[in-house]
Amino acid sequence: MPNTTITALDAWEALDSRGRPTVGCRITLQGGGVGRVITPSGASTGDFEAIELRDRDDRYSGFGTRRAVASLRGPIAETLIGMDAADQVAVDSAIAALDSDAALSGIGGNAALGASLATLTAVADTNREPLWRVLDPTGVPLIPLPMVNIVSGGAHAGRAIDIQDILVIPVGSTSFTEGIEWVSRVRSATAELLTEQGGWAALVADEGGLSARLDSNEAALALVTGGIERSGLGVGTDVAIAVDIAASQLVDAGQIRLRSENTTLTSDEWIERLVQWAQQYPIVSIEDPLGDDDWGAWRRASLELQNIQLLGDDLFATNASRVDHGISQQVANSVLIKPNQAGLVSRTADAVATSQRAAYATVVSARSGDTEDHWLADLAVGWRAGQIKVGSTMRSERTSKWNRLLELEATEKTTYAGRAALAPLR
């Protein structure tokens, strides 16, 4: 067996897809394996996720990551060198022990994730096997159903509309390859329709979606529904809609404030509006419709939207304890999985396993500030997540993940998760 002892760790300040600094990390093993990753960074971050360590000085408007790089080159390297990279839990526990804050604010969640992920990828490299196989040693790779961004607002697009993203899911596709082609067709058709309506389809948001100032949030739903129709695909049968509300960005004194419409709604009024939208449009998934600590409103929404995939992002923050609490409260039915919310690979895997044991659907997700790395696609396959959300069908930090899944489907014996991966599963 190759020697998986960690012999070296290096780190550097890199750039994410928004041009903001992030962290690069490289780990070398005794057996010759090398793991190199660049960590992503979110824009609409919740209150319960791992905390990135930023410099808060004059460089890059305070977003520099030299302090996080110093954490990696200093205490994290000193701790990990000599450890067995094959024991991911022990590696991650050693990293976590360096910080008295569970949110990793001292060493930086961005630094912690860089070391954790680089360790995992180094083991795959040493063993000369794909990353997904390290996580799923015996299974046939499960290619996830894609959830793809078409129109963006919120923190991803200068708040042109309040809703963060309108996405589509190729629910009728029989392969990932077919699904991505369908989605690309819908995006092109939606762009044509937007241009005809007087919008400018050349504007692109953080995740590659169309960005346009529309008359209302509902107008974005109508636009994407029209794009599906124009594409020639079946509305709701071939392609359906997913909505990312990102309500933690909208909550104001316990109510939902829609700034683009100059409207404020109570949680009950807002839930009623979501129910109406779900009846009027081909919506199969709604993400973060309510605040990330408003468990009572989430419970009401879960009762009112039982036939919808109700997806918790900021609510769960890729934290197994919060997922457990949601399960006990019968809140939501699916969990968004973001490795940098957890800050460590093993913590992320715990959130996946906790969700799947309760038959909650899992959706592995990229961030708005992402990178050209494609390890996320392998994590989704290795954890048999069933669904993946990385942005639109353009911008290389997005297509790198789609291209990895296209490669796997073309070159391996695989199965495709398809529509069966959607909640409600229980």
Quick tags:
glycolysis; 13 helices; 19% strand; TIM Barrel; 2 domains; Enolase-like, domain 1; 426 residues; alpha/beta; single chain; globular; eight-stranded mixed β-barrel; cytoplasm; three-stranded antiparallel β-sheet
Describe the structure concisely.
The chain is an alpha/beta fold. It has 13 helices and 17 strands. It has 2 domains: 123 residues, 2-Layer Sandwich (Enolase-like, domain 1); 280 residues, TIM Barrel (Alpha-Beta Barrel).
Written account of the structure:
With 426 residues, the protein is an alpha/beta fold. The chain folds into two domains: 6-128, Enolase-like, domain 1; 142-421, Alpha-Beta Barrel (TIM Barrel), CATH 3.20.20.120. The protein has 13 helices and 17 strands. The longest helix has 21 residues, at 176-196. This is Enolase. Keywords: Cytoplasm, Glycolysis, Lyase, Magnesium, Metal-binding, Secreted. It catalyses: (2R)-2-phosphoglycerate = phosphoenolpyruvate + H2O. It comes from Microbacterium koreense.
